[in-house]
Amino acid sequence: MCGIIGYAGKAGAEEFLLQGLKRLEYRGYDSAGIAVLDENEIQVVKCQGTLEKLEKRLRQERARGYLGIGHTRWATHGVPSDTNSHPHQDCQERFALVHNGIIENYQTLKADLKSAGHSFCSETDTEVLVHLLEEIHQGEMVTALRELQNRLVGSYALAVVDNREPDKIYALRQESPLVIGLGEEENYLASDMPALLNATSKFHILEDGDLAVLSENDISIFSSEGKEVKADIFQADWDDEMVQKQGYDHFMLKEIYEQPTVARRLLSAYLEPDRVNLPELTEIWDDEIDRVLITACGTAYYSGLAGRHILEELANLPVEVEIASELRYKKNFLDDKSLLLVVSQSGETADTLAALKLGKNSGSRVLALTNTIGSSIAREADAVIDLKAGPEIAVASTKAYLAMLTAFYLTGIKLAGLRATLPERELHSYRQELLKLPEKITAALDRVEESSRKAADYLKDYNSMFYIGRNLDYSLALEGALKLKEISFLHAEAYPAGELKHGTLALVEEGVPVMAIFTRRGLVSKTLSNVKEVKARGGKVIAIATAGTVEDKAEFDKFIELPACNELWAGVLTVLPLQLLAYHTAHRLGCSIDKPRNLAKSVTVE
Ligand code: F6R
């Protein structure tokens, strides 16, 4: 979703802002713009479309200066257009402002401002902010921004510059992320850390309600109560190399092949031969807890569906999984006997954050599985597992999903220990097997590369297909279908294998591809019967199975075999051909793989 960048320093702001916006591209956008201060003049260049288009405009209408702000817009209020692009300006063009989030009361504010004589040129909620600032600014920006804050309902991260203070960027944060980066005689602002990793690894993350003032040599931060807050600077363990393609054609492919490293990093942080090292979970655990509830959106939600089977089997607890945007509206669902597991790669998904807050207000203990330490979700939760996947740039999530599953394995073993549901001997053998997972992932990637390519050659010619599986395999089917949909734009539906015959089989005819997943030995014969139903109607079956799981392969048109693996951990292997299948199909269809249409990486609006 929208991205914000800011620069105050000695180098050319224009180039820094443009490069920063390129680094924010992965969040999804449809327009972009920058405002640069040259002495006391604000130059705004903005347009609908790509950053290449903005770059061309910048060559014609140069915006030079040493301080500025930039923005990538993902349209919510008003179509993508030049006028709706940020930065927005007030009537006198004294201020320029960029914003991420949604101002819920913008219509009332706009009506009042119009009556007071302000004229608007865009349909955005953002433009209201800059006119309101013009209305209330009485000579002192911090006071004016506090007053602005009091009048707003909604979520926002905003940055504003004033032509009478050409050495300062002001920023406000409320429920939309904003980080400050610290450099040598320069300081930066951005929606997320990857945007600034080329310049610094030193960050301060703004809290809700914070107001920040940045200049070349200084940063000041004020809490919502108006008190000056000392910057809590930390060194990120992400580096610039991690946000480069490193020779791969796409970030998605790079991230798929990075998965053995991700699993190794995560396991070495939390797993020792004789214990799962999760002291924060031990601390919040209470024997009174009698259920686990997992909540998330999209791919993270599908990891939760897989996680349910893992936790139920290992920790013998009832586990429910609820989509975050639905959980928010449930009443009396969570209580102080629930452990709420919140899963989010970005740590900023608005619906997931709202579900977390609901859980906390209901007295539940909250464990977050997130890839972004310092994110809102990480800060609100009682305990955190850092997924350690490194920055994920492709919009379609791959390595974060694998890290989520691996974190569920760790949580399952830990809860089994806390609840004494399994003998130590058994837990020990689970831990030993888990330590071998990274090697298995490497072996699996080698083994399925070719067969996934071949299967993609077939899929590309069909615009509709199905994914089936039972139990854990159904949750993997859901993730496989989502990956294909989001990057190849083909229609793919996942079904519990036994459910196909209750209606959807009507759509299976000659040649229709059906992906069947087999990782659970006890369920093979049942899913094979569903495969036969597909074959009887002319469907083409592409089967994915771990070695030794299926003996009778007669009905399969294509077979993707994974290395043998303990059934409980098979999810992380099975997802690999599903990801590769989606990638190669999208590649053959010439799709924009890393930035698929209509999607955003960090969904900070509800
Ligand atoms: C799909 C995908 C999305 C996200 C979802 C939640 O590949 O990436 O479905 O999983 O938007 O995002 P996070 O995990 O950041 O909360």
Short structural summary:
The protein is an alpha/beta fold and 606 residues long. Helices cover 37% and strands 24% of the residues.
Biggest sheet details: 8 strands, antiparallel
Give the tally of β-strands.
Answer: 27
Strand order across the largest sheet = 3-2-4-1-10-9-11-15
- Total helical segments: 18
Radius of gyration equals 25 Å
Q: Which architecture of the largest domain does the CATH hierarchy give at level 2?
A: 4-Layer Sandwich
Helix content: 25-40%
Bound compounds: fructose -6-phosphate
Quaternary status? single chain
Structural classification: alpha/beta
Beta-strand fraction estimate: 15-25%
When the domains are counted, the total is 3
CATH topology of the largest domain, by name, is Glutamine Phosphoribosylpyrophosphate, subunit 1, domain 1
Described by the principal axes of the CA atoms, the overall outline is globular
The CA-CA distance between the termini, in Å, is: 12 Å
CATH superfamily of the largest domain: Aminohydrolase, N-terminal nucleophile (Ntn) domain
Low-pLDDT parts are none
CATH class bucket of the largest domain: Alpha Beta
Integer average pLDDT: 94
